[in-house]
Structures
1.
Amino acid sequence: MSALVSVKNLTRTFDVSRPWLNRLLEGRPKAFLHAVSDVSFEIEEQSVYALVGESGSGKSTIGKMVVRLLAPSEGVIEIEGTDLFREPDQERVEKIRTDIQMVFQDPYASLNPRWRVRDIINEPVTARGGDGTGLAERLLEQVGLSAGDASKYPHEFSGGQRQRICVARALASEPKLIVCDEPTSALDVSVQAQVLNLMSDLKEEFGLTYLFISHDLTVVEHMADRIGVLYLGRLVEEAPRDSIFNDPKHPYTQMLFAAAPKLDAFGREVEPPKGEIPDPINPPSGCAYHPRCPFAIARCTLERPEMRQVGGSRVACHVAK
Amino acid sequence: MAQALSNREVVLSVRDLVVEIPTRRALLRPVDQVSFDIGAGEILGVVGESGAGKSMTGNAVIGLLDRPAHIASGEIWLNGQRIDHLRREQIRKIRGKEIGMVFQDPLTSLNPLLPIGEQLRETILEHLAVPQREAEARAVAALEEVGIPAAAERINSYPHEFSGGMRQRVVIALALCAEPSLVIADEPTTALDVSVQAQIISLLKQLCHERGTAVMLVTHDMGVIAEAADRVAVMYAGRLAELGPVREVLTRPAHPYTTGLMASTPLASKGRKRLNQIPGAMPPLARLPEGCAFHPRCPRAEDKCLQDPGPSLAGCGGRAACWFATEAVA
């Protein structure tokens, strides 16, 4: 298997400065928020790669850059060996873009309420001049709805059904890669199971590759083949699913797993994690996790740890072994 | 139910509560025949999917139902006093004093234009007969108790100056500052990150056990329930489906809905390729099926479930409202 997506040293900064007059009067410098810093990973064809992290860790920003909704500040995203932002051959760029689709978190906000379901699902094909006759009906049946639903409007469906419509729309252009940004966070547990099962089935059937973005570790453990853990815009650990869940190396990953609620932890009395995610505009020096880390040593406050191989995992930590 | 509480003083007692919303098309019942007790120092978890009526039950208890929703029948008793038929001014005295509230989004439950100290002092002065200076000291103490560092300095900060987790701590301080006997926490950690959620859950548990406050913890997250609650009530389509000690309900569910709900969490299907799923979705209130509301999705449904909703909770040992539950429990 080869890498479908290859992300190298990806960085994205946002200008969060005050307006220029305020800066001038108050004598403040420009301020930048590093949403994603120096992130590298590869996604194998027909696998599920999950990005996990808490809010502000940059997982959605990476997803948006992969589907080209945002441009990277630095670094390269190669899809099928082509960097969509630098490739001069526009025809090839257009062709590869049809191979990438996205499913968003909120199925209430991501469907146009004034469009019929048929038009919503056909849009990725008709926008490129294709013929969408009968396509929506076929896809609706594929995602567990009925062909007759094609002439309805989004408000006639429940949250889970809407997310199925979003999945059907993502499938319309016969993509290879689907970026799923928290696809089940807005759904109830019993409906979440239905949508996750559907996504697994479709992956087998169409040979899809998923970039799966989630904060829910139980969902990630179920879906992912490989997992990247993000903290404050940096990848702190990256490993195959089983090694990361059985033997998390990075102290942040360990904390994240320990803090997640468990179904068999009745009346569990554990020391809750300390501190909160720091301000991303002025992140701590050295390793960004050091103020909360129980294993921090002097070196952690001074020097940022580089990604290194520890066992089967890639870990950015001075202490992990 | 009664035996589980025998060694505790009952703080809140809800009996056959029915909430109705008259609409042009139909009379909706978002809460239907719900009964439960919460004892001092106990955390009762209320779980269910969206629209199951869990928040509506909480709002009915604190008298915050929005018109046209109203309590149609049933009784709510708080520390031996009946509170469901009180007038607005009377329930206002109880709200905040006897019942504290923690809502999902801490930013919208705090006044953005007032420093947090001002909001704490206001609540304390309104409900406790203490002088101004004493109120000030109590406000600082309340913030210290919920783990806000440098409370004395931060008391004049505005809500936007706090992070999400710290804001939720402020809301908890606000809920507890008049020393209520009951706290209703409606999805208190849903808007928070995993690590902060663990902190808030642990704080709620600790405060509740130390002070003997009864807590009604409304959430959709089974994991949170497992860690925090002593007993759990499972709601479906406005009715209580199951009620019992958390360990028993989660490990040996008696109602088919609870069984399905537990099986469909990714944790329970560990190592399996597919998750167990409950077919279909919860029906809208306007189109509830005849008989047991769960029967169209239930793998065990028989003819009798289609006509008759089955025994009420009290009718089968207080565990689950289902024809097949009695045998499961016995």
2.
Amino acid sequence: MQFIWAFLIGGALCALGQVLIDLTKMTASRIMVTFVVAGVVLSFLGVYKPFAEFAGAGATVPLCGFGNTLYQGVKKAVMEQGLIGAFTGGLGATAGGIAAAILFGTGVAMLFSPKGKH
Amino acid sequence: MIKLGENTFWLSGRTGITARAAVAGPIEGKGPLGEMFDKVYKDEKCGQTSWEMAEGQMLSDCLDTILVKGGKTPQEVDLLLSGDLLNQCMSTAIATRDRNIPTLGLYGACSTMAESMCIASLIMEGAATRNIICMTSSHYCSAEKQFRFPLELGGQKPKSSQSTVTGAGGNMLTWDGGNVCITAVTPGCVRDPGVTDSNNMGGAMAPAAATTIATHLKDTSRPPEYYDMILTGDLGELGKEMCGQLTMELGYDISKQLQDAGTMVYAPEESINTAGTSGCGCSAVVLNTVILDKLEKGELNKVLFVGTGALHSPALLNEKQPIPVIAHAVSIERR
Amino acid sequence: MELNIPKDKYKKRADDAVEKSDIWIDMLKAFVVGGIICTIGQVISFGAQNIGFTKEQAGTVTSIVLILMSAVATGFGWYDNLGRWAGAGSILPITGFANSITSPAMEYKSEGLITGLGVKMFIVAGPVLVYGISASVIAGILTYLISLV
């Protein structure tokens, strides 16, 4: 059942993004920024976490889930350490993904070169 | 040479095209012009390590071919006019370094082929020159890298977008040579039609092409029927249609003569998701293969070649400025 | 000779001439591909929990594995083809983030490992980190202030 929800919710979020792309001609960078910031805001408003518990990977894999992880990390750190947590919590919680993207991105780029059009 | 009407230079017609060359990448090689290219590269790296060097290599090979076909040594070439799309005209610099030919680098975006022929024929009329080479190049991969996104970035392209031609083309103009000559040139004015969509270059360039064509016809008092073909550079399907409409609004019906080089390079199955091709190489490879071939053989007698260019820069576009556009007309006729 | 068409009028005319892509088909493609990527994520997440990771750790493991898959697909030149078909379906999942880091790194490698690959790696994804992290810090400060009240 969880798989079906992941598929439906994840697909629906991507379809929503596609509507924004088609109607506003947003570039990839803009659409990604919009979703991450929306994730942070919705998480701050307390909406995203219950949504993510219900939708599983359907809510955490799209980039708004990255925004949610950022804020949940910040929130936890603020509760434990006070104001300094606002600065340390977000990157701490998302460090795995960011470090992986940097390492694998660098590794792959060293091994492969871009292909031409053909 | 006399100045005619608003913007046209009426030439003596003694400047002829004595050699021409075009080289292209693998996809272009599979297209309808495939057999006519002097060289088709197996892959888009052209034996080099980067896209910029690959484009330089194509332009360099194109220059070699022109010299060989024209039977001239570099010392016999008085001037080389060359330009491309890359920052600081990188390909031109790579192709012409250590050539010992006086070189003027040009930037007219995709109108460079027409721009170089305009300037060369004007110099020919006024100066003691014998041979001038005009050439230009573009490369899909180097253009994507500089103007758009990394090649491996996943994303969609609208159907109105055009695909940069991987290729280089050029020709040699010789005083009193050849059976195909340049009889008039109409350099265009930079226009700003207000279009901001970088995926609709054809629509952006159509007003420049239409005004240059109408100006040329008016200045020379030639009806559109004077020409067998009016060949625009890279308007694509959409831009070609708009150019026809706009020229009509300016009082000339060119629907029978209008052809666009941007619709001639790719095989139909390759162009299915685009509005056609673009880039400096687009009009350069079409003009220097099929069009000049037909002119030399007498299958065409009079062609108005209208190079179109979107003077598009990513920085200006990010600053919300519309895309400035330009078009230059070169009247090419059989003697 | 000049065209006597006002700029805003011509802009609209040029924009209207563009053949619009079918938004419903685009949405369907994005839905299917985005859904499949999220389902793969769910499989990885359950798998990670089964071998002893906590739920929170499993989320991180899912991200890392998806990012690895995307980086490799980008290297082989598959991800851009997927993106051409799927649009937002492959841009918005975390795999799109990885693709947007790997692809400029590959593209600019020719300009050097430091000055090319290293410098240009974030030309697409940089803003995601800039605005995502900034927003989270601001939200964290607000959370702190609210907790004081």
